[in-house]
Design goal:
This protein is mainly α. The chain has seven helices and two strands, in the order αααααββαα.
Amino acid sequence: MGPRSASPSSRRDLVWSVSVAERRYKGYRIYAYITLARLFAELDLDLAQPDLTTLVDGRLAALPRRVSKEEILHAIRSNSHMTEKVLEYLQGEGFATIQRDERGYDVRITRKGVEHLQEYHRFYRELYARELSEHYRFVRSPEWMR
């Protein structure tokens, strides 16, 4: 018997199982990569430039603009629970700092975060190519992700 002769509830189960299988869950690590790239963009540097390590400390110290938690949520295009998980991971690894003040949250990349991104950027781009393509399927990927 094919799907047409199945009972309505079993057809619904068949459709439900296919649609669940087609949805792909993106783990927090891809969102952590997107967040690191977003935070790095604030430094206005190029990961490939040869003198990056000499410029990073000066840029980190002089960074006038803050990145808010809401901007991170918008960049990863996920919910607040996932944003919290990503920020906790980045802070726990020492890749980012998070400070709260009267205006909200101030999220910044650290030197360790820059070094990590510099070392693994190409690897992450290849590893998460499908997920990144899907993440930016309806909108053009931001300049800082290219």
